[in-house]
């Protein structure tokens, strides 16, 4: 309950901010997308990790106003980068289960795109397999979101105990292979087999693939050989402040 009140106060006091982790296109070496990740700096207790406060925001319902703030901040930021003359980039924003049940989710996304004047193709929403929702309901919701012109990614792919059949029904653009499959890929033959299978399946389904949590060159080599589209991980960059993203591009000029 304490934390719940603190979270409410944090929204009012603007204690949240976003960091952005680049996704690198393995064919071009360019950053085409960044994932927005929320951060909370408490005025007294300091940095609070999202895997602590996001579950509390979900349980308390605060994820609705927080999720809205995150989405609007991310879209505003991408628009700002565009106006600074940076190469066009997508932003990927994580959705929580509670937001999928939010009655006005589609309207909220539409409003935010309008307010920020962001081209919808530059917004990607991430859902996870473990978001248990009636499959017909989920299919309809995702189709409604797709009519806005945005992209949909499945995050933590392969960890959710869900059947693969949803891949036929959901209008998705991208799979994000969970870090769990990638972290031992150098020496684990089972992980190699699973990642190869996911890459091959995604190609046949015309889905893009992002491999997450790449920390070592040997992992990168395996993914390049497997024709993976994008990587996201500490090897290239940790999640960083918006200004650091701008600086990175200025250094390239
Ligand atoms: O960035 P980090 O690895 O510390 O995040 C830990 C977890 O917190 C992530 O795996 C993700 O599930 C969650 N998380 C981080 N940022 C967001 C966000 O903006 N929205 C939601 N819903 N979850 C987030
Ligand atoms: O659940 P989700 O995939 O949205 O969360 C991504 C989280 O994974 C980010 O919060 C980020 O901090 C973390 N992350 C990103 N790259 C790496 C990595 O290379 N190694 C580790 N250990 N964590 C990573
Ligand atoms: Mn994610
Ligand atoms: Na993930």
Automatic annotation (TrEMBL):
Signal peptide: none annotated. It comes from the Bacteria. The keyword Membrane applies. Residues 1-253 form the EAL domain. Keywords: Membrane, Transmembrane, Transmembrane helix. This is EAL domain-containing protein.
């Amino acid at each position: 309950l304490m934390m719940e009140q603190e979270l409410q106060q944090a929204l009012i006091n603007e204690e949240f901010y976003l960091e952005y982790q680049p996704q690198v296109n393995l064919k071009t070496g360019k950053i085409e997308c960044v994932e927005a990740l929320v951060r909370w700096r408490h005025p007294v207790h300091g940095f609070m990790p999202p895997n602590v406060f996001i579950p509390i925001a979900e349980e308390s319902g605060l994820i609705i106003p927080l999720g809205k703030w995150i989405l609007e901040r991310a879209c505003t930021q991408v628009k700002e980068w565009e106006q600074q003359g940076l190469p066009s980039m997508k932003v990927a924003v994580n959705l929580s289960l509670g937001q999928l049940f939010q009655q006005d989710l589609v309207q909220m996304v539409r409003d935010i795109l309008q307010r920020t004047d962001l081209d919808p193709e530059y917004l990607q929403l991430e859902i996870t397999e473990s978001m248990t929702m009636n499959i017909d309901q989920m299919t309809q919701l995702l189709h409604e979101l797709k009519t806005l012109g945005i992209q949909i990614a499945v995050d933590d792919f392969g960890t959710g105990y869900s059947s693969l059949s949803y891949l036929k029904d959901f209008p998705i653009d991208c799979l994000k292979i969970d870090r769990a499959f990638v972290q031992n890929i150098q020496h684990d033959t089972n992980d190699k087999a699973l990642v190869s299978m996911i890459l091959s399946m995604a190609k046949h389904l015309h889905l893009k693939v992002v491999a997450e949590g790449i920390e070592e060159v040997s992992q990168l080599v395996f993914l390049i050989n497997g024709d993976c589209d994008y990587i996201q991980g500490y090897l290239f960059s940790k999640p960083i402040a918006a200004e650091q993203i701008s600086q990175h591009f200025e250094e390239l000029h």
